Every structure is written in structure tokens, then in C-alpha cells.
Amino acid sequence: MPTDVVFLLVPKLHLLDLAGPAQVFATANDFGYGYRLSYVAEVEEIVTAQGVPVKAQLEWPDLGPDDLIVVPGWRSPRLSPVPPIGPETKQRLRSHHAGGGTVASVCSGADALGAAGLLDGRRYTTHHDLTDELAARYPNGTIVRDVLYVVDDRVITSAGIASGIDLALHLVAIERGAEAAARVAREMVVYARRNGDELQESVMLRHRGHLSDLAHRVQDVIDARYAQRLPLTELAAEIGVSERTLTRIFTNATGLTPLRYQQLLRLERAEHLIGHGATVESAARAVGFEDPRMLRRLRSRATEPVAG
């Protein structure tokens, strides 16, 4: 029997919060893995945050314990004063979970699960811009910050936007196997299926909020060649400034030396490989460490400054 996946649509939903997971399950179904998608709402037409109207059905399909309800997020960065779902919809969510079914959310969709009481006593996450608000609104649960998704007793919450794809691929892997999820990811040209505990913001994004054109150019070089040896002399010559000027401007802009930035990129990529089954030794080689002991040291003191 196919698995029913019901998307609960609310006004001003984000298109990618809906389209990302929907594409995963639709592609899985194209491969014969057995998913049946439907879209329900409290009104027949939903206008998305991007202005595209979406038609929905008012009647819910009959759902069993093997089926899934997904609540995509709606316009952020702040939560609406009250979740945009009514009492009957809240009861639908509660009843489905109580009957053994799974409920999932993308981004601010976690607010709907919280309104239904499904976050109480559970760990959950959301988009990093909303964590403080959601934690205050649902203090009987435990917010998990800066991860892609959290699974707790058939309640699955994700960070939002693109992380909905990671959540859906995870569910395909659990229900249909890792090979099925890999086939879907490849068909969707997804670079890698990320684990739930990976950070919402990569090192590349976290240190890009500055306005220094020179520092951005240096980061472009390091991002592209982080697994290679990049002596400061070579880096400075490529950018066309002195080593002293490069170090000063880069550190002022990012809070890191070029070496520390490169090490963080290597560490992040190595953690990803290890999380997907690689040994420390093979991960160290893949990211450019000649000696795996360096990777072990960086992992053991990941929050400490590295001499260099």
C-alpha cells in the first residue's frame, strides 16, 4: 500500500517549504516507492508568501498509522500572534499522531504542531530566526538550536526552506531504504543528503555577513580550494596585497585568520563525511589533512582558537 503524505497548507506558506518535500515524495513515487500526495487546507485557495495561489482540498483523506502529515512553514521572520489553524485542524493533527501516525513540520510549521500540543515534552527545532519565539511559546518542549531537523516520537521538525528536503529524504531513507533516498537525491541533483544534527548555517555562510570585498575574494579562493595547501604568501599574491594587509582585513571582517577559516571548512566537511560512515583517517585525507591527528585535535577543541 502506498504511504499517504498530506500537506497541510496555511495562508502565506513558503513555496519551497512545500515544494521541496513534495518533490522528494513525488520523485520517490516516480521510482515506484509508493507515495500518494494530497494537499488540504481550511480554505480552497491559499496565496503563498511569494504570491502564487495554490488550490487545496477541504476534505482530508483517511489516514492510517503508516501515513504522514507535513505542515510547511509560512511567512517569517516572526511568528503570527496565533497559529493560523483552527480547532478542527489541531484535532486532526493530535488524532493522527495518537493513532500511530507521523507528523512533520518545516520552519514555522512547528507552530502548528505546538498549537496542537505535539511539542510538549518533546525536542523540536525550527528556523534559526524563530527559535527564541517558539521556545517562549512552547516552553513545555525543548528547543534544539541550529540543527537541520529533529525526530522525537513520530514528531519531526525541521529548520525550514531547504531543510525540508533533508527531512523528506530522511523519511524516504527510513521507510524505503538508503538506496531509495540516494536515487531520489541524485534525480533531484541534491549535492548530499544531510544528517539532522548538521548545522543550519555552514561555515561559508556564517562568516559572509561582512562588507569587505577583499575578504570575500579571499574566502572565494579558500572555499574553492580548502583541501589544498594555501600558504599565506600564495594567497596574498593571488589577491594582490601584502600578507600583512590580507591578514588584517580578513581578520577584521570575519573574526578569523585565513588559516583558521580554512581549518573550519575542513573540519565541517570532515564531520559531514564521518557522519555518513567515513573513518577519521579517510575523512582527514579527503579534506586535506596529511596527518589525521590534526583532525582529531580540531574535533576535540572545535570551539577553541587554533594557533597558526
TrEMBL record:
Protein origin, superkingdom: Bacteria
Domain HTH araC/xylS-type, residue spans: 216-308
Gene Ontology molecular-function annotations: DNA-binding transcription factor activity; sequence-specific DNA binding
Entry keyword set: Transcription, Transcription regulation
Official protein name in the record: Transcriptional regulator GlxA family with amidase domain
Native organism: Kribbella antiqua
Lineage per the UniProt record: Bacteria, Bacillati, Actinomycetota, Actinomycetes, Propionibacteriales
